[in-house]
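tool=predict chain=A
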Amino acid sequence: MRTLAHFVMRGRSQAAMAATVPAVLALLLPMLGIVSSAVVALVTLRAGARDGLIVSAISSIASSLLTYLLLGTLKPALGFLLVLWLPAWALGILLRRSRSLSLMVQTALGFGLLLVALLHLALGDPQAQWVQILQPLAEGLVQSNLMEPAESQGLVQSMANWMTGFLAAGFYLQLLLAVFLARIWQAQLYNPGGFMAEFQGLRVHGSIALMVLPLFAMAWLQGAMAPALVRDLALLLAPLWLVQGMAVAHGAALQARLHPGWLVTLYALLLIAPAPAMTLVILVGLVDVPVDFRARLSLKSGPEQ
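tool=predict ok
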């Protein structure tokens, strides 16, 4: 990946190529969209807003030509610009000027909130729309004799209840991972170790916790009976506390001088058992707001240094 970062920083045309190719391939492998966004964010972080915007524009033209030749439509290229490149460009500007990873992570929530608002305003009842989209899944399960019709409809309804929130949370998490990757590249090329120092100090403002806790409580206690907007916002805010929980884990491991295997085990659990592991990390992130684990560990280790 460092080789790719070197290639990106050689010039605008190289950066545009590095942003365009993963974006087009992301139509088949969505995770590659993170790499494409990271390229634009890296250029913005290192060279500034103007260069980042120029690379986004060149990439838009190139991807328009590619998608038209391959698919006969320009719509994917517009999606790349609006979903992958412009948000990463804006967050890159913010991080370049503020030098605050915490501020960037919290500001990025605005893009997720915008997506939730647009879906509710445009669709009126997103849940009903998701039922229609997922209906072929129910029919396929019934035809394959995997479920009874009533069971398949219940599954589709349950999935539809949470799909808008999952979509917004996935979009938000993708943005964060893209800017993190860009910051990692920047640190590897120009400031070794800089990203990890920033990440270990990442901390969400307490006022956001006060907003999140009632939403989490309502979504947890009422489940599918909770208002749709409450469910969507609760899911959207989950990645924020997941990131803070991971920052706590990294910071605490450094201050407590834990063996690196401890973090390796944590990441392995996130891959093997994502639901319970993520829930635990999110809870750690939330509890850290009043407790501040890293500050407490710093006080304990201070006299020994």
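Residues 201-305 form one domain. The chain has a mean pLDDT of 90.
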